[in-house]
Amino acid sequence: MSKRTNRPRSFRARVAGTVIVVVGLLTVVGAGTFATFNARTTNPDNLFATGSLVLGNTKTSGATCLSTAGGTTDANVNDACDQLFDLTVRKPGDSATARLSVANVGSVAASALRVFSARCDDADVAAETYHGTGSPCGQVQLVIQRYSDATFATPVECVYGGGTATTCDFSDTTKTLAAFRAVHADAASGRTVGTGLAAGATRHLEVRLLLPVTADNSLQGRQATVDLTWYAEQ
Which residues contact residue 194 at a Cβ distance below 8 angstroms, ignoring those fewer than 6 apart? Predict the structure, then answer.
């Protein structure tokens, strides 16, 4: 009977010892999950934002026309600003003047402002019964004068035409619409207007046209249609 009672005690002792060992291992493993080294740094909200280069074109007493045309800057081209001239029934010796302001209304400075003419078209005047065959584009003289401010009182640059570097006139009869178009036909070859155009800056300009007194009968009943485009680049 004593041998039978000893075996169960020995078995229980072994089982108890095993339980103690397992518990000990779990204690060691569990303690390891709270014993790691760590460190952390963050550079948050890093930003790269662009500015804008937008032209505002305002004929005196007119509304401002933006290069965005009221939309996005994806194209940033507006070919529908105010007409500067609508001249009819003119004769040799007649002239006309239009004033406008070109402004950089964006936040990025332009390194250059230029003016160019992509077209000058000669045609018969539809309202006239009789027509010549001459070229008004080749005869009508063009002057582009820059002034210091919106009063248009102080000339500061003769952009195109006869006269001096500061003040334009019609003394050079070769400065015609066609001559301007031949030399300044696109943005790359455009005539420079001032030195750059800072954000918020404005150029005040006067455009003048003259049909010289030497114009002959070939210009009767004829018309010139010309585009003037103002271009700024960063």
Answer: 113, 146, 157, 203
